[in-house]
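Hey, I'm writing a tutorial for new members on how sequence and structure tokens pair up, and I'd like a real worked example in the thread rather than a made-up one. If someone can provide the structure for the chain below, I'll link this post from the tutorial.
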Amino acid sequence: MSFLLNGKVAIITGANQGLGLEISRKYVNAGASIVMCARNDDLLTRAQKELTRGLAPGQVIEVIPVDVSDIQCVEQLLKATLQRFGRIDILVNNAGIYGPMGPIEEVDWAQWIKAIEINLFGSILMCRAVLPIMKKQHKGKIIQLSGGGATNPMPNISAYAVSKAAIVRFAETLAEEVREFNIDVNAIAPGALNSRMLDEVLAAGPEKVGQVFFDKSIKQKESGGSGFDQGAELAVFLASDASNGITGKLISAVWDNWEHWPEHIDELRNSDVYTLRRIVGRDRGLTWGDK
């Protein structure tokens, strides 16, 4: 598929490796100018050099080291982006960490809080920063990276699970707040990725993450996982005009037929499909639990 981003300006956090780097690559290939953000400056510079080879005339890649949980860093990022481009069309909140692994009563509390600060507060801070610009433009795209923690319990990786569930509900809520400004807000479930975070799980071992999750991670490592391509392609689609009107959804890059969703905008707008909702007894054929 080809979704054009010509002339668009995108901020991508966690952009120096893994899925963030692949999203950056596809955005450049689709014609966007991008601001790549992450905490590791060396990896950012390396990523910039790699992607610069494919630039078309007029395209720009900026790299800015940023800790998204630090409000001053976020404000400096916004200022630098506006000085360079004068606009912000797309925000991709990809930065995230697993946080400490182990039973909740045993993990380091400061590390647990830091994971919430990066995954949840950092994404919200980035949204708060770009929204005045997008509202003034009366148009924008905000794309939030979710994960398995949003829809399934993750014993022994609780900070990650809590933050991902919370950020998806924030995305749903924000989508309603900004609907009248033509700003679309969606979350992506990219699938099981063989990333540095998987390596962290394997390094932690079954005693920290549990035998079941560890064995599942071993199989994922051996199979190659979902790969970065599908999640990155979905991120391009959600940044493009092809997805206009699709908002407030949690979308699986692997399992959802999202390429054809533009044909069903009215149905999507008037339904709670592809959102976080409580499952009640009658949804599962049980007659005793509901009034």
